[in-house]
Amino acid sequence: MNSHTLRMPAAVLLATGAVALLTAPAAFATGGGGAGGEGKAGAVVLRAGLDVGLLNKTVHVPLKTTLNEVSAPATAQKTALTVTLDGVEGNKPVSVLRADVATSKASADKTRAEAEVNLAKASVHVPGLPLLSLIEVENVTSKAVCEAGKKPVAGANVVGKVTALGKKVTLTAGGPTKIEVPGVGEVLLELSGTQTTSTTAAAAALRLKVAVNPLKLNVAQVDGEIVLAEAHCESPAGAAPASTPPTNPDVKPQTATGTGSGVASGTTANANLAETGGGSLTPYVAGGALTLLALGGGALLLTRRGRAS
Predict the structure, then answer these.
(1) N or C: which end of the chain has fewer CB within 10 A?
(2) Which one-letter DSSP state was computed for residue 93?
(3) How far apart are CA 63 and CA 86, in angstroms?
(4) 228 vs 34, 140, 158, 308, CA distance in Å?
(5) What is the arithmetic mean of pLDDT over 119-128?
(6) Which residues are CB-neighbours of 169 under 8 A, at least 6 positions away?
(7) Residue 185's closest CA among 53, 19, 86?
(8) What Cα–Cα distance (Å) separates residue 55 from each residue in 21, 127, 140, 215, 218?
(9) How many C-beta atoms lie closer than 10 Å to residue 24's C-beta?
(10) Where do the H-state alpha helices sit in 133-265?
């Protein structure tokens, strides 16, 4: 089983003055995708942002970590995450997540961007509660697909039994489920929805808001948020479905360049006639009209002389 271990000295973290509370994923830009017109995609199995309060000190140690976070193109398959915090649990590694399967993958090119997460037989722990799982899940998945010229889609699924703080949980889409354990604390467990725009999609399977006070192993309180199975994507730039005709086709006027008895382009000939008031036959037509006029005038003159005599 693979392990991902991070060590976070409390003094260094506290010097920054930062309190790592997880927020929702950043909003996506509505413009086109990445460099060269390619789409963007990313996935993460677990994202945690917790504030850990210590019993023997009036300080709080931020715990911010991720497992199997990837950006396209990439794949990660680590199944364990441990973090060491100074002053917490005797400076021993805290097992945050263990799973039988924990994979994340993302791919992107000029036609399609896709991200997917799969987590199976997983348990999540927080500092101060090494024996009691914050949550256990059988299988959670999420997927986001952004294809050029199509509306992005996203989906998340939770399959099988879910327990939080040792209690079986029935999740509903209507709102968060609250689990309380006396002397331990509470967890708000929510089926995280999906979000799509004209060019982006995002999904996360589960979102947990944590507030526990174990009062063990030098941990007084743990607050924050944990997200499981998160995927997001952004469509490639400037691409459109092949079957869609151009909205404003570039139509250029045709001109006749060949020789022959016919008119090569009726549209062009008519346009020239309308613009100038005449065409290539105009001189001949005018000459014939003048000849007929002269003959008619001569005949009229002879007729008048005959009558006069």
Answers:
(1) C
(2) P
(3) 11
(4) 26, 8, 10, 119
(5) 95
(6) 162, 163, 177, 179, 189
(7) 53
(8) 20, 12, 35, 7, 5
(9) 13
(10) none
